[in-house]
Amino acid sequence: MLVRIPAEPSRHRVAVWRELRKAGALSLGQGVWAVPELPVFEAALQRTAELVARAEGEVTTLEAAGKDEADGARLRGLYDEARRADWTEFLADCRKFEDEIAKEIRIEKFTLAELEEEEQSLERLRRWHRDLTGRDVFGTPQAAEATARLKDCVARCEEYGELVFRALHQLPGDAR
């Protein structure tokens, strides 16, 4: 997709950039984006075209393949590299989530407000995992690790929820 948008106001360029990044498109250069030719990307390309039209810009959509096998492999490699970077970031956030739960347990912060905050963080991880899975159409190896880590995060949050429940329902003088 070749995108041309007037420089001002910049909010139009930012909206297009966000839409294409959210879809998992690769930026190949200024205003040049690529996604595999699969139905999963059609809605994002349509939304992008609508955003560009509102900005009084132009979109040219092309079907492209590498000139030779090496070029095609390079495009695929760039796409896979972008997905690996996405999963790496996701895994880092899973570690942060698990570290946060461990800290709350260590300091015995067993409050309903804290549990709700952690559940919201877990829900964000779930949404992000779902979005990344939708983009990872070729199945990078990190996807399986990320799925396992998300399950670990769910288990840690459930454990924390159980501790909060016990703390909130403990009677004074009860040594449960």
Number of domains: 2
Structural class: mainly alpha
**N- to C-terminal separation?**
62 Å
Number of helices: 5
Molecular shape? elongated
Number of strands: 4
Q: Return the average pLDDT rounded to an integer.
A: 93
- Radius of gyration (CA) equals 22 Å
Outline the structure in words:
The protein has two domains: about 1-60, no CATH class; about 85-170. Helix content is about 65%, strand content about 5%. The chain has helices at about 10-25, 40-55, 70-105, 110-135, 140-170; strands at about 1-5, 25-30, 30-35, 60. Strands 1-4 form a two-stranded antiparallel ribbon. α1 packs antiparallel against α2 and α3 (about 70-105) packs parallel to α5 (about 140-170). The N and C termini lie far apart (about 60 Å).
Key features of this structure:
176 residues; mainly alpha; 2 domains; two-stranded antiparallel ribbon; two-stranded antiparallel sheet; 5 helices; 66% helix; 7% strand; elongated; ChrB N-terminal domain-containing protein; ChrB_N; coiled coil
